[in-house]
Amino acid sequence: xxxxxxxxxxxxxxxxxxxxxxxxxxxxxxxxxxxxxxxxxxxxxxxxxxxxxxxxxxxxxxxxxxxxxxxxxxxxxxxxxxxxxxxxxxxxxxxxxxxxxxxxxxxxxxxxxxxxxxxxxxxxxxxxxxx
Length: 131
Prior knowledge:
6 strands, 3-stranded antiparallel sheet, 24% helix, 131 residues, 3-stranded mixed sheet, alpha+beta
């Protein structure tokens, strides 16, 4: 399951950015752009992300995945179309086979939302010890 390695790479990138920022106390959300042709299973990625965040500044962060469609352009007639899944790589207009894939393989961090400053004060009463 390569989703775990993807999740861990994303977590590592966000942790490094948070460390460079200096006073990040918590990461609230991470938005990813994932192309439909990238071969990523969103549920597996979300599960892996949640596991990988445990014990880090990202613990409890929301993962938002924006799926980007696969788009292609025909070389001979310049027609552009959404390739879909499974991908249609022959031009639907002229049936040409010289296709340029314009998008659909992306996998990038689009945005991170975090908080900086002092960590929030505890909001619950401590549990009294049993005697």
